[in-house]
Description:
- The protein is mostly helical.
- The protein has one domain.
- 76% of the residues lie in helices and 0% in strands.
- It is built from six helices and no strands.
- α2 packs across α3.
- 30% of the residues are buried.
Amino acid sequence: MKTRFEIPLSQKITPETPFDDAFNITRRNHVMFMISGLVYVLVAWLIQQFVWGGQPTGFLNLPELTYLMLAGAAVVLTLAAIAALFLILPKMTSPAAVLDKKDISTVETLGFELSQAHMVRIVAAQTPAILGLVLYLLNGNIPHMIIFVAISLLLLLATFPRRDDWEEGKRLFERQKAMRG
């Protein structure tokens, strides 16, 4: 079994990827998405310093009411992503749900499918950061962007892949396989 530090960054997960490698790659990808939120803040600061001359003007500099309406829509979409992440997606992306929906014949395929299911959760958790970046680019309001990025980071921390969840999926798979004979 390779440690997460021995897996090359370019490694992709396929149905043939060993289960433990699939888990480690999924965790690494999750961390990369967490770092991307911080990169958004850095890029926003660089844009403000070098493109807008230190002034938070945004590319469009929308009227305040228009910006507030867009910010409100971003809040609603963030709440929808949070609801999906904690109410809907666990029923669709848990190891038991993956095993129920897919015809999985090997433990390697299970690792692949769990990784794919987890990517859906990462996308939902990353949504607030992307919305914050868009709001920033529109009006240059970095505090709002930082709030959305912080929400995204908290969601990513809350959904970090846990070894025991994957191991439970592996046990369920082995039980199902034994029952099929």
